[in-house]
Amino acid sequence: MPPTPRPPRRALVTGGVSGLGLALVRALAARGDQVMAADLADAAPEGVLPAGVTYRQLDVRSDADWAAACEAIERDWGGLDLLVNNAGIAAGGRIEVAEMSEWEATVAVNLLGVVRGCRTFTPMLKRQQSGTIVNIASLAGLTQAPAMSAYNATKAGVVALSETLLHELGPHGIQVSVVCPSFLRTNLAVSLQGADTLAEEGKERYLSRAKRTPEVVAARILRGVDAGRYLILTDADGRVGYWTKRLATPLYRRAMTVPGARMAAVERRGKPGG
Ligand SMILES: NC(=O)c1ccc[n+]([C@@H]2O[C@H](COP(=O)([O-])OP(=O)(O)OC[C@H]3O[C@@H](n4cnc5c(N)ncnc54)[C@H](O)[C@@H]3O)[C@@H](O)[C@H]2O)c1
């Protein structure tokens, strides 16, 4: 039997003009969904968004921006079916080198930006008794490599928040998914600008050389959301990391020791960065 056609959804994607957010916006629009892409700039970059997609300036750190977006969606669409909390920034650095201002900036976007999105739209979704919240965390939210403490902590926070909401909002007919991808090729490295110059090595090694494309990851996310999955692991690295940590903790700890030891050796040789 052919699958039952899915009615179009009304979707809001934060961080929607670059990388994974943009790929999600394009994939949703291609499926016939009504999409609002939101991001920091006053206007979307020329020619980036598909026809029919609305753009809105929304800094996820701003309560006023969230309230205005919610009002506009209520007025123009009468409700929302899918909220994708995707906006995020990179952060790296050893605990004693990365500055408190980096922690504050990372928490403000990666964790509190998601909290604000969930807080803003939950009353609407509860009234509807329907809707889906998709929080883009990271594999860093499940397995914690060294010299990324601010990023890891915020992403683990998003996982904890999502699991809480799964239990809290499920009874209201609201689906919650958390997405934990490993490295993929986007513009995320641009936002990594901290005090620890050793973090540059990780940026080069992992972020800039990532092979996975946002389009492939976006397609996997939407399949997971359609299937009603809570934890969406979009790649083999994620599945291996997740299950190794759960089922083979000593192996996981050993794997996590390797990059730490590499960095300690560089540090002992007196490389820059603190
Ligand atoms: N790239 C990776 O390897 C990777 C891996 C796992 C998870 N992620 C997560 O995926 C999400 C998307 O990142 P990406 O890799 O596509 O990076 P990206 O830099 O290409 O896109 C991030 C978008 O978020 C926007 N943004 C940043 N701060 C914002 C704010 N305060 N308000 C609104 N928008 C803001 C940026 O302008 C940008 O358009 C992030 O949450 C990131 O942590 C990325």
UniProtKB/TrEMBL annotation:
InterPro entries: NAD(P)-bd_dom_sf (IPR036291), SDR_fam (IPR002347). Keywords: NADP, Oxidoreductase. The keyword Phosphoprotein does not apply. GO terms for molecular function: oxidoreductase activity. Pfam families: adh_short. Signal peptide: none annotated. It comes from the Bacteria. SUPFAM superfamilies: NAD(P)-binding Rossmann-fold domains. Belongs to the short-chain dehydrogenases/reductases (SDR) family. This is SDR family NAD(P)-dependent oxidoreductase. The lineage of its organism: Bacteria, Bacillati, Actinomycetota, Actinomycetes, Micrococcales.
